[in-house]
Each structure stands twice: as structure tokens, then as C-alpha cells.
Design brief:
Strand content: 15-25%
CATH class of the largest domain: Alpha Beta
CATH superfamily of the largest domain: Periplasmic binding protein-like II
Order of helices and strands: EHHEHEHEEEHEHEHEHEHHHHH
Distance between the termini: 22 Å
Helix content: 40-55%
Strand order of the largest sheet: 2-1-3-10-4
Largest sheet: 5 strands, mixed
CATH topology of the largest domain: D-Maltodextrin-Binding Protein, domain 2
Number of strands: 10
């Protein structure tokens, strides 16, 4: 137990789309006292969509967000204040879930696919999966804005979506309910910057100690996951409404597939794949592909154990 004294701890709100199982390194950092070691307390604040989360970060509603990086990348390239300061998920832990009548991705011609956004995250991954089977939007399928993973699962249950890629554990739940799992995203897109730690660089420069401390704590949280995924699953069960079996399966999968970079780095292949998807969807000017240094500032990321 860490003894806390009024005024010692800094509070940081972290914007997320919704609390999800990929938040487990944050929960581990909290439960193991890694955040307390940095004199930090964090609170997750949900904004429901990727674009809403990026907007909240840009508008100063929250100082940090762990979310799809596309909005922050575009803001940085346009001369804005947003930057990536660390990686978080370089390998997407999702599956394409479809109504039981669909048995293969090729069967989804003419289907309605649910996504959180038309500009960030899931839409890019689904496009890559569909393109591998010769299907292209909009002539072969349509995207439907259907909210985050919990909302998409409800829409699948209601029959208002034909398919959607679903984050763990919603893919497990869907399989057990008789829905078709048409393939894991990482079988098609092994490297993709699905989530990054993003901030306003003006705020981060003024709060260097807090930002670097937060990243050290998250770094230690990721290491705790790799050291004992079953123990991490127990913490996840205490934070989310899910079965212990699903939590263990997910955390073991996180480790076996190296979903989280152990050093919170942004892998070059994951960054390149994200930029390529953005360019394909005309989200940036027709120009040479930007370098990581143009939209990221990694000086806050120091090795665990450093002062």
C-alpha cells in the first residue's frame, strides 16, 4: 500500500474510445503501484468514437489519449499541436465477425460492415481484409457508422449489421453465440498502429515529468502483462464485465502475439502500414510519405528504471 499525501499526486485524465481490454497495461500500472511510484493518478474518460477522442484531445478536454493515431498524425502534419509520444498496440487483436449465414469473407459482397469511423482505425483494417478477397468499398460493400466494439456487438445481435471487426473479448463472445469468425485481422495486417499514446505537445513540454512518468508506468504495466498474463487477466476481470476464461485467453494472446510493444515503441512497419492506409483513403495530401519524426516526439519515452 502506497501512503498518499494531499498535493503530492498529479491527476491525468486519459481519453479513450471506451474502456476495453487493451487498457490492461494501464490497470496493471495502477494495481501494482507503478503510477503511484511516479506520483500519478489516472482516470480513463470515454468519448465513444475515435474522432471524438481525438477532438477531445485537440480541444484540451483531456491532456492525453490512448486511441487510433490517425487524427493526431493529420493534426501534426497540418502544423497542429498533437503528437504521438509512444506506441501502444502495434498488432491489432481483432477478428472479423459476421452473421452466421456468412462462411467466408468473399461471401460479404453487398454486405454492411460496422465501423467506428470512416477515417480512423477499424475501417482501414476491414478494407485491407476485404481487398485481399477482391472486394472494395463502395461498389462491393458499405461501411456503416455503428459505434465502438460494444455497440457493434449489439448491432450484430440485432441483425442491423452483416459483419464488423471485433476486439477481444467480443469476438470470443460472438463465436460462442453462433456468429461466424471469418478470420483474425493480424492474419491479414500483422503490423498496424491500432493505438498510440497521443498528447498535445505544448502541454507535454510544460509537464515533462508527468508525461515521462506516465510512460514509465505504462512500460512497467506492459512488462507485468508479459511476466504473468494470468495475473493480468484477474485484474482485467475486476475492471470489466467479462468471464475469467475470456480474460485469460485474451491476455495470453496478447503475450503470444506481442500485441503491445514491450518498450512502447512505434514499430516502423506498423507506422508505415497506417500511413499507407491513410494515403489510400485520401486522408492526406498526395506527397511523399511523412516520417515518424514529423508526427511523433519520443523524447518522453525513457527506459524503465531511469530517473
Amino acid at each position: 500500500m502506497v501512503e498518499r499525501h494531499e498535493g503530492q499526486f498529479h491527476q491525468i485524465e486519459i481519453g479513450v474510445v471506451v474502456p476495453a481490454l487493451i487498457c490492461v497495461p494501464i490497470w496493471l500500472a495502477e494495481e501494482h503501484g507503478f503510477l503511484a511510484d511516479e506520483q500519478l493518478e489516472v482516470r480513463l474518460r470515454s468519448f465513444g468514437t475515435t474522432e471524438g477522442t481525438t477532438s477531445a484531445l485537440r480541444d484540451g478536454v483531456v491532456p492525453v489519449a490512448i486511441t487510433s493515431p490517425e487524427g493526431s498524425i493529420l493534426d501534426a502534419l497540418a502544423g497542429g499541436d498533437l503528437r504521438l509520444v509512444a506506441g501502444f498496440v502495434n498488432r491489432p487483436p481483432l477478428s472479423m465477425i459476421a452473421q452466421p449465414r456468412y462462411r467466408a469473407i468473399a461471401d460479404l459482397r453487398g454486405a454492411s460492415l460496422g465501423t467506428t469511423s470512416l477515417k480512423e482505425g477499424t475501417c482501414h483494417l476491414m478494407e485491407r481484409m476485404m481487398a485481399a478477397h477482391g472486394l472494395h468499398q463502395p461498389k462491393d460493400f458499405q461501411f456503416v457508422i455503428a459505434g465502438a466494439h460494444p455497440q457493434r456487438w449489439k448491432a450484430l445481435q440485432a441483425g442491423t449489421l452483416d459483419a464488423a471487426i471485433q476486439l477481444v473479448p467480443f469476438n470470443y463472445i460472438a463465436e460462442e453465440a453462433g456468429f461466424s469468425n471469418l478470420g483474425d485481422v493480424d492474419d491479414y495486417v500483422p503490423d498496424f498502429l491500432f493505438a498510440a499514446v497521443c498528447t498535445r505537445i505544448s502541454w507535454a513540454e510544460k509537464n515533462f515529468t508527468q508525461v515521462s512518468g506516465l510512460l514509465r508506468a505504462l512500460h512497467r504495466g506492459v512488462r507485468a502483462l508479459y511476466d504473468d498474463p494470468d495475473a493480468a487477466a484477474e485484474i482485467a476481470v475486476s475492471k470489466m464485465d467479462m468471464s475469467r476464461e475470456h480474460a485469460r485467453r485474451a491476455c495470453r494472446g496478447f503475450v503470444s502475439k506481442a500485441v503491445f510493444p514491450k518498450d512502447l515503441s512505434i514499430s516502423p512497419p506498423a507506422f508505415a502500414a497506417t500511413i499507407e492506409a491513410m494515403a489510400h483513403n485520401d486522408l492526406m495530401e498526395k506527397r511523399s510519405r511523412p516520417s515518424l519524426s514529423e508526427c511523433a516526439d519520443l523524447k518522453f519515452l525513457a527506459p524503465v528504471g531511469s530517473a
